[in-house]
């Protein structure tokens, strides 16, 4: 093997990346006293040592540092002897530095993966924000449309102090509902909003209330609500029902 070929193996030897036969041949060559190859090995070892020296300044998790210490300690006791002159002190240093460098790369890989996950979450948040912005814009347009009417809902026998207001757009069969001073919901129950069209109650959605009895519901287009006559709120089992079964808490008549 030519000297140039041995020189190319120097970096691989410092990184402990040579095949067994290449390693044996390279060690035999360096043992002959090749000053150029010894210098190259020293340079590689110092580079790795400098990289290892940067590790304590990285905010590595305790588990990563613990693994590093174990690997460096193991590297300091190599299982196979290195045939070299007594003045050679770089093999253990190179292997220990390699272990440190490997842990640095693993840690950086973890950081990159974490950043990718955070970017994915941010992308999802941005997508949700855009969707919410579009929804709010559409809602404002609906509320400002000339065909949208406001309907007041009064409290019924179970809660006469409760109040509600429905902004209803008959062309879109959609709107916005707000309620106040409704009683707290019993366990396993929900409030359900109804649109009474041509005498038939049609569900417009379910909603809960805050500690003060306030609630809201963005009403998506309600199929079948061709002529909204009355809006009402009843107390129903969680998840709602296809037809009213509970007591009525709010009711209001739409203008003709």
Task: Walk me through the topology.
Blueprint (H helix, E strand, L loop, with lengths): L2 H12 L5 H12 L3 H20 L7 H14 L14 H55 L3 E8 L7 E7 L4 E7 L8 E9 L2 E8 L7 E5 L8 E10 L10 E6 L3
Antiparallel strand pairs: 1-2, 1-8, 2-3, 3-6, 4-5, 4-7, 7-8
Helix pairs in contact: 1-2, 1-3, 3-5, 4-5
Query: What percent of residues adopt helix (DSSP H or I)?
Result: 40-55%
Summarize model confidence as the mean pLDDT. 77
Q: Give the low-confidence spans.
A: 54-58, 71-90
What is the assembly state of the chains in this entry? single chain
C-alpha-based Rg, rounded = 37 Å
Structural class: alpha+beta
Description:
- The protein has 256 residues and is an alpha+beta fold.
- The protein folds into two domains: 3-113; 148-253, Sandwich (Immunoglobulin-like), CATH 2.60.40.
- 44% of the residues lie in helices and 23% in strands.
- It has five helices and eight strands, in the order H-H-H-H-H-E-E-E-E-E-E-E-E.
- An eight-stranded antiparallel sheet has the order 5-4-7-8-1-2-3-6.
- Mean pLDDT is 77; it is low at 54-58 and 71-90.
């Amino acid at each position: 093997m030519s000297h140039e070929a041995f020189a190319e193996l120097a970096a691989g030897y410092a990184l402990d990346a040579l095949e067994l036969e290449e390693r044996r041949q390279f060690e035999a060559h360096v043992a002959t006293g090749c000053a150029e190859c010894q210098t190259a090995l020293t340079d590689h070892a110092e580079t790795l040592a400098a990289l290892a020296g940067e590790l304590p300044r990285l905010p590595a998790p305790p588990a990563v540092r613990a693994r590093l210490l174990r690997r460096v300690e193991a590297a300091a006791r190599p299982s196979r002897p290195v045939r070299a002159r007594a003045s050679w002190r770089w093999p253990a240093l190179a292997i220990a530095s390699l272990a440190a460098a490997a842990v640095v790369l693993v840690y950086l890989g973890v950081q990159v993966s974490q950043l990718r996950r955070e970017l994915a979450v941010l992308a999802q948040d941005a997508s949700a924000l855009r969707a919410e912005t579009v929804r709010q814009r559409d809602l404002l347009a609906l509320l400002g449309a000339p065909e949208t009417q406001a309907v007041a809902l009064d409290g019924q026998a179970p809660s006469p102090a409760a109040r509600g207001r429905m902004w209803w757009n008959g062309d879109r069969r959609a709107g916005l509902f707000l309620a106040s001073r409704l009683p707290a919901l019993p366990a396993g129950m929900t409030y359900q909003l109804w649109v009474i069209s041509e005498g038939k109650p049609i569900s417009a959605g379910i909603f809960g209330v805050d500690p003060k009895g306030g609630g809201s519901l963005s009403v998506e287009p309600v199929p079948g609500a061709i002529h909204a006559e009355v809006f009402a709120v009843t107390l129903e089992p969680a998840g709602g029902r296809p037809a009213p079964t509970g007591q009525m808490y709010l009711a209001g008549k739409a203008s003709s």
